[in-house]
Amino acid sequence: MNPFNHRYAAASPPERLDMDGFTKSFTHLSNSSSSSLDFSFDRLVESSPSDEAQCEMIDKAIRIGRVLVEAGLRATRKRDAEHNSRVWPLNSDLTVNVFFWLDTRSVCYTAATCNFFRRCTTDPLCYARINLLTAVPKVDNLVVSTMIQRAGKALRSIKLGLLPASNESLGSSQPLVYSQRNSTNDKRSRQRKELCILTRSCLNSLTIEGGASGARLRCLHLYYIERMDDAALSEVLSACPSLLDLVIVGLHVELRQTFDSVSQHCHNLERLYIESSKTGRYDSLQTATCLALVENCPRIFSFALRGFELQDHIILCLVKGFRYLTSVDFSTSCAFTGGFLRKLGDSAGGNLLEFMFLCDCMHLKKEEVKNFLSAVLAGNFKLLRHLDISNWDGLATEDGRSRSFIPINQLCEARPNFSIRAEFPSLMEFESDEDVVFPSQQSSPTSDASFFMNSGVSSGSEDSQDASFASYGESSDELDFLSH
């Protein structure tokens, strides 16, 4: 309590009346009288008998001024809160439900509006969907821990780390630009990661009290948290048995150990998206590890491994193993030639695919794609709606890169709802009437090549979750307010 308030409360009634009259005389001063008060105070200071008395008088005036300012601000907040509680059309419970749909940044701003809104934002439901993604490092472990503790058992979603560059995908099945530009993206990623202030223990709050906060977590997205290692990630996943949507981008973790952790702890997973911290990374992924993932996480319908060195038999094991798989993304991965495409579409796995992204796969062969499209024309893969085989230099052949082909006319006639994205920017000519090359400049949505699907198709798992936990793409460029 302010000492002046304490003295006022302890004062006798006559003294209180004197204080009220003194305060009232100040509040009734006009603008001209305020100027006179300024000169009057100067005269009093100058008339003081000593420097010590002058200093004491100035200090008292400053203290009295601060008390009046604080009292005025406090009265303003109280009045605004009472006003808001009267005119705000919703009660506290409904207000909390409204605040639930706000992103983390907006919730914190709302809490600073008035006491009424601050009381509403203390409800854990307001922090059920934590989004602390930033373009530059502004979030530390304390901020993350505070948000998780505020959410408690109501926590459903966490998005944490550094936002990818503007031309990179944000945990969706949307391809990167092209391989020749990936080196620039890697450089930017390294620069951002070097500044990251989150450590390997940034999500330890999920594991406290027996993992109460992480027990009902549905969605976990982690981007470019450089210090997050395999042991820390495994500990986090062990506290999240209800996880449905897992996105890992740019973390220095081994793919094999990540698969083991997911297989062991996240049996309800429906969407798994992993993007390597470095394009072309080799993690010695074994068939046994893939089989364990397929067996322990049978509900996965959206699967992405981007930027890794993958063999055809590994991809085939995964795609055919997940019996409910509708979307796959192996963009920017290397080593595989597309041989797995020949063995898809039978009774076991692959026949439910709707979206397939093979963008910038440098060893993807023209012949394999040709055979696959022939199978599509023959009536196989009836549910497939979109295929992306874009590559800067076209598809690979035995003698190097090739001006690639797309039998557009036959595909459009046989499958009018089937769309292809096949942009080869380095190839600016047409090969023949049968094999056609489409340069990127001719692939706008308004061009004659209307069969192109130029915007990547996202297959987020939040569609499968309760609508209460859907993502609305909130962004957080500035989060200084969270540290207060």
Description:
This protein has helices at 3-10, 13-27, 31-46, 51-87, 92-100, 104-111, 115-120, 141-151, 179-194, 208-211, 230-238, 255-265, 287-296, 312-321, 366-377, 408-414; strands spanning 129-134, 157-162, 219-223, 245-249, 271-275, 302-306, 309-310, 327-329, 334-335, 355-357, 386-388, 395-397, 400-402, 419-421. It is an alpha/beta fold. It has a ten-stranded parallel β-sheet with strand order 1-2-3-4-5-6-8-10-11-14, with helices on one face. It has a two-stranded parallel sheet with strand order 7-9. Helix 11 (230-238) packs parallel to helix 12 (255-265), helix 12 packs parallel to helix 13 and helix 13 (287-296) packs parallel to helix 14 (312-321). The radius of gyration is 31 Å and the shape is elongated. The two termini are 21 Å apart. The model is unreliable at 173-184, 191-195 and 429-484 (pLDDT under 50).
Helix/strand structural class:
alpha/beta
Low-confidence stretches: 173-184, 191-195, 429-484
Order of helices and strands: HHHHHHHEHEHHEHEHEHEEHEEEHEEEHE
Largest sheet: 10 strands, parallel
Tally of helical runs: 16
Main-sheet strand order equals 1-2-3-4-5-6-8-10-11-14
The total of beta strands comes to 14
Beta-strand residue percentage: 5-15%
Tell me the Rg in angstroms.
31 Å
Distance between the termini: 21 Å
Kindly report the average pLDDT value. Answer: 77
Percent of residues in helices: 25-40%
- The coarse overall form would be elongated
Kindly report the oligomeric state of this protein: single chain
